[in-house]
Amino acid sequence: MSVPDHIKKLAPWFHNIHLPTGDQTAPDHFLGDFPRFKWDQIKEKIPQQLNGWKVLDVGCNAGFYSIELARRGATVTAIDLDPHYLRQARWAARQFDLDQTIDFRQTQVYDLARSDETYDLVWFMGVFYHLRYPVLALDILAEKTEKMMVFQTFSSSGEEEMKVPDDIDFHQREILKNPAWPKMYFIPHRLAGDPTNWWVPNHQGILSLLDSCGMKVEVLRDIETYIAHKNPDRSSIAGGWNASEFLSATGKEWKKSAIRKTNNK
């Protein structure tokens, strides 16, 4: 399929978006019809009507998911650091008459900690493993999530799961050698030629990370894509015993008086 010149001017495209005109932005994508095939795997698990929902799309790239969610009625905040992707996304949104429904912002995921905005749905796909501080980002996003999170990451092979004990005896650390033990592998140089591919978690690692952030996985669409909901039985990091650590890490004020009071007991 040939690509019109006005689309080529915005190349290269990483999202193949099917435009209302019938044109596609990247019909010869090396991954195939990406990310539409990923969307097709999970779209039935996302509410068909999102009217009144606020959605956050983290790492929106050219805006494929933002557009699909806005077409279901959501008001979308879409963030990315790359100005090239944001130019593509704003242009694509205009083709669907959704440029007033989607707010594209050039910002870091960590910057969200300084905002009081929350979202019914947080869309966190294809970003986690590119972050130097991924657990901090996940903590921040869990705080922003009111209802659902769609989480996807590059992961190691295998689907092993285990019941992770609440405590490990100091002298019984052999359990850490269990193939299913939650872990993340650190990539010190490059993976697939990309120096920002820092982390490769295993399946149980993803489940445990989401649980520790107050999210409960309800649906596993494939070994890398998880649909989670806010877990009412789990306290958030910001409201837990290590609240001061979270607040300091995100540049917020924490009540030193509360710490002094605890130390004086």
Let me know the average pLDDT.
92
Helix content: 25-40%
Q: What is the total tally of β strands? A: 9
The CATH homologous superfamily name of the domain at 49-161 and 171-234 equals Vaccinia Virus protein VP39
The CATH topology label of the domain at 49-161 and 171-234 is Rossmann fold
N→C terminal distance: 72 Å
SS-based structural class?
Answer: alpha/beta
Task: Note the run of SSEs as H and E.
Answer: HHEHEHEEHEEEHEEHH
User: Uncertain regions: pLDDT < 50 for 5+ in a row?
Assistant: 257-263
Biggest sheet architecture: 7 strands, mixed
CATH class of the domain at 49-161 and 171-234: Alpha Beta
CATH architecture field of the domain at 49-161 and 171-234: 3-Layer(aba) Sandwich
Please report which band the strand proportion falls in: under 5%, 5-15%, 15-25%, 25-35%, 35-45% or over 45%: 15-25%
In the sheet with the most strands, the strands line up as: 3-2-1-4-5-9-8
Report the C-alpha radius of gyration, rounded: 20 Å
Total helical elements: 8
Please describe what this structure looks like:
The chain is α/β, with parallel strands linked by helices and 265 residues long. It has a domain at 49-161 and 171-234: Rossmann fold. The chain has eight helices and nine strands. It has helices at 5-8, 36-42, 64-71, 83-95, 134-144, 203-212, 243-249, 256-263; strands at 54-58, 75-80, 102-106, 119-125, 145-152, 184-186, 199-201, 215-222, 225-230. A seven-stranded mixed beta sheet has the order 3-2-1-4-5-9-8.
